[in-house]
Amino acid sequence: TKTTCAVGDEATLLATATAGASNIVRVGEATSRESLHTAIRQACAAAGITPQQVQGTCIGGAGAARPELARVVRETIAQLLPAPIVVVGDMEIALEAVFAFGPGVVVNAGTGSFAYGRDRQGRTLRAGGWGFAIGDEGSAHWIGRSVIAALLRATDRDAKTAESRLAESLLQTWQLNSLLDLARRANSIPPPNFAALFPATISSEDRIAQDTLKAAGKELAELAATVIGRLFPGEQVHVPAGITGGVFRHSEVVRESF
What we know:
Layout: E1 3-8, E2 13-19, H1 24-47, E3 57-61, H2 67-78, E4 85-89, H3 90-99, E5 104-109, E6 113-118, E7 124-128, H4 140-157, H5 165-174, H6 179-186, H7 198-202, H8 207-231, E8 241-244, H9 246-250, H10 252-257
Parallel strand pairs: 3-4, 5-8
Antiparallel strand pairs: 1-2, 5-6, 6-7
Helix pairs in contact: 1-2, 4-8
């Protein structure tokens, strides 16, 4: 949903800049190129350098490690920056940011989600991250979809639920007038932006919203447990874990449940 570019020298972070989405699978090559170029230009300008002064570049993006996508991303970046350009997945940069070269598991919960770990021998393993339609448990997309489902089920049991503040907040977010409209939008093709409902969910004290956030934390913990269990089978060890992403950052309920 966003692209952040950081510029640094050997010792210091000089500047950062954030632009729009750049996941080629989600937004296409043209939008991806615009976001990447905008982030690079703005970050370089803020750092007081030109793109041609950059000595090396690493791109860590959702799904970017796939060879066919990595090639497109590399070619896009090469239009602005000199070689060498390394393209890896967002899982790899998250793990390096938290643990450098040591063992551990990092769990990301933003628009999507995944867990990614490394053992003491350097072996790596991922769990989750299968995409919004069939996975991304505990992500902002999953939370938005789940809170609608729970709200509609609760309305079946008690019609007064349709008048709750949570229902009102969700309708306002998508600019709708009724729960019937909400159900129609949720089932539309292409799918709507379920992640946009995350702010309304975390700001609600409604039990449905709180239970959904707790469930998200448990789903994310399951991803971490899966990676730990496979990377450290049968070992009684304390495995360091790190968390990253907007869902963890903005929801204390999710963090505590996790």
